[in-house]
Amino acid sequence: MSNKLKGKSGEDLAVDFLTKNGFKILQRNFRYSRYSEIDIIAKKNKIIYFVEVKFRTSNAFGTPFEAITKSKLEKIKKGVNYYLATSNEAFESYRISAISILNSNIDFIENILF
Fold it and tell me: Looking at residues 67-77, what average pLDDT do you find?
């Protein structure tokens, strides 16, 4: 299976997880520029979640969460700012979140920036 297909299947699992936990999916693969992509934008209780999904089949190259670098976060922030400035979606607050999928284990961190 190609990396692109693995990424899509990981995102599909993340969408299922979020939906089952009461989130409304607003968008997938939101692009601000060729450098900034947000995997999933979801909403729950007037909070918008910008979700980075990391999928791995093993820890051989580190955990999924370890793959979210400072550089990646800076790119996500640019996309978040653009989305918030151009969207008509009503919200009270927002969070940058992450979902880690390692084999069939799913971990969700609601707010990765403190």
Answer: 92
Strand order in the sheet with 24-31: 24-31, 37-44, 47-56, 93-102, 105-109
CATH number at residue 51: 3.40.1350.10
Candidates 102, 33, 31; CA nearest to 63 is 102
User: Domain for residue 114, yes or no?
Assistant: no
Contact partners, residue 14, CB within 8 Å, separation at least 6: 39, 40, 51, 53, 99, 101, 106
pLDDT computed for residue 64 by the predictor: 87
Mean pLDDT of the chain: 89
| Distance in angstroms (rounded) separating the CA atoms of residues 45 and 61 | 36
Q: What is the C-alpha to C-alpha distance for residues 70 and 92, in angstroms, rounded to an integer?
A: 26
Structural domains counted in the chain: 1
What distance in Å separates the CA atoms of residue 114 and residue 112, rounded to the nearest whole number? 7
Which residue range(s) make up the domain with 73?
3-109
User: pLDDT per residue over 11-27, tens digit each?
Assistant: 999 999 999 999 999 99
Provide the pLDDT for residue 81.
Answer: 94
